[in-house]
Amino acid sequence: MPQFKGDITPEVQKEITSFSEYVMKHRGFAHSTGSSLVLKELAVYRRGKDGKDHARVVYETPVHEEMLNIGGNLHGGCSVYLIDVCSSMALALLGMASGKPWDFVSQAINTTFHAPAPAGATIEIINTTVSFGSRTVSATTEIWDITNNRLCVTGVHNKMKPSDRKSKAEKAKL
To answer: What are phi and psi of 12, to 5 degrees?
Structure first.
């Protein structure tokens, strides 16, 4: 069971853990990677500088064979996948806890690679919200090799409100 910190109601605790379980264990792209993630910490807190609420979500997983590049280290594409899904959980948690919409879609993921994470190492994926507006939101991610005590990857994930779908009648008018 993950550790909850801050002002997270029992209802939101259940909603975010169920949502995380659904997303990470869902069959499809990167199923083995998502299903290996262990949710360790969920926190909602007030940032001191501006008094705004923020969220932090932490996952752990061993680096296993399906996550590797040809050199035997965590693949860059796998790193970006981890940034995408894990930072989205921090943003979803903040939305759920604050009663705001949290159904955003990715706009940009900027990634910097610092050091390799070798096969068998345990990585910790730390995700922290940065901003949460009505149209755009963002979070940062740090992927740490906690076996070898080094920062491997950092990322910034920007998401936006999806466009409303147009009906067939509206499309026909165009």
So the answer is: -70, -35
Q: What is the pLDDT of residue 134?
A: 87
Ranges of the chain with pLDDT below 50: none
Tokens (6 digits) for 91: 């943003």
Cβ proximity of 122 and 144 under 8 Å? no
Structure tokens at 20: 């995380």
For 67-102, the DSSP string reads GB-TTSBB-HHHHHHHHHHHHHHHHHHHHHHHT---
* pLDDT of amino acid 89: 95
Residues 6 or more apart whose Cβ sits within 8 Å of residue 46:
52, 53, 54
Collect contacts of 63-69 with beta carbons under 8 A, ≥24 apart. 63/117, 63/118, 63/119, 63/120, 63/121, 63/122, 63/123, 64/32, 64/33, 64/36, 64/119, 65/119, 66/32, 66/33, 67/33, 68/119
pLDDT value for 165: 76
Distance CA(125)–CA(66), nearest Å, equals 17
Helix (H) or strand (E) holding 20: helix 10-25
SS3 130: strand
- For the whole model, what pTM was predicted? 0.90
Q: What is the pLDDT of residue 3?
A: 85
Measure the CA–CA gap between 62 and 32, rounded to whole angstroms.
11
